[in-house]
Amino acid sequence: MFQRILIANRGEIALRVIRACKEMGIETVAVYSEADREASYLTLADEAYCIGPAASGESYLKIDRIISAAEIGNVQAIHPGYGFLSENAHFAEVCRDSGIEFIGPPVDAMAKLGDKVAARKIAIEAKVPVVPGSPGLVTDEEEAVRVAREIGFPVLIKATAGGGGKGIRAAHNEINLRSELKAASAEAEKAFKNAGVYIEKYIEKPRHVEVQLLADQHGNAVHLWERDCTMQRKHQKLVEESPAPNLPQSVREDICKAAVRLIQNAGYYNAGTCEFIVDKDNQFYFIEVNARIQVEHPVTEQVTGADLIKEQIRIAAGEKLTLKQRTIPCNGAAMEVRINAEDPENGFRGTPGRITKLRIPGGHGVRFDSHVYEGYMISPHYDSMIGKLIVHKPTREEAIACMKRALDEFILEGPGVKTTIPLIRKILDHSTFTSGEGDTGFVERSF
Ligand code: ADP
Fold it and tell me: Which domains are present in the chain?
């Protein structure tokens, strides 16, 4: 087992990894930008190194600085968290070439799955249903039109290197498609340094269901059931839960098995998530693999009892999975909501500022994963997510009731600071949500 790990990330996930390491008797090295100098989790790490100014391009995304910190800190492994360099195959390669284990998948599988068109091909080979669409990248307008006519409008133009809900455009007709195609490609080039786009049928009012996976370096792979992340805004998740409501048991088992098949076909190991959309008839389609730990991993931890960060570390150290598929439980119902510092009434614009008053909920079944505290300065430089509130109860009804009372307890105030709490509170009260009948457009249509 590793003696010392560097965490190439910030915020709640940095703290989450430090906590797991402490429980495993592993020392930690944190890195931080000048903007995060006062982050309280830094004092929980055994060492902390400043790696540059606030802008993430100058700090958390600087591979050379992170490797230098890893060398000075004398670590054997790097945990990348999520976001930043977590899905950067080049970073994983540099780590391993420097004799430092990257806590994540093999470079090859990462590179393949990080490209959505290549991932679709792997899914097709593994006999996992994909959304009908172009067989590969579309480069010319006529081909795009031909594919769209064949699968039927509306269609989505998606960036093959896209992520984080960015790089997706809808086209409702031929004229639309012709005009959007070039723009989509130019936008993809700018955002992802890869102009490749492809076409997928737009599935009407789908649900988002994803499967948590763990695989070791010895060919063993298991799923830890599914999460439903249908409540989204701008293709980004707001509420996540497990099990998925109203999903027939047979579909549930099929989707989980399909996900395992897919990552085994890709030669994948460590933690990963296979994302699907599910249509009105419970037909599911693969959309992408997230080759890293995800924000919503605590939901799965609550229902299965597994510690996914510890599992990641054990797998990276070469240990065999001890979890056996047949005995992985899915107990009760867990739900997570994202507390973001943003203004839902103003296009979800970020609302950075100092937290002057904070009351964190607690009590039976409540978990709060966050790095913030009273007096904390929410930086404008990073993602607006400042915490994750998670509940676990025997049934979904009880989980919703618990989440509502926890949100009612929550106070987070500061000059100019707004949060997603009031919006999420309204979602939880809505009959479409409580009946489990929402779709991915529900939040934007209804609020
Ligand atoms: P990203 O990598 O940017 O997160 P995804 O491919 O995972 O992009 O899609 C993000 C979200 O967009 C999904 O959760 C779903 O809500 C929506 N979406 C993606 N593909 C389709 C599709 N073919 N039809 C309808 N909605 C889709």
Answer: 4-103 (3.40.50.20), 132-201 (3.30.1490.20), 207-446 (3.30.470.20)
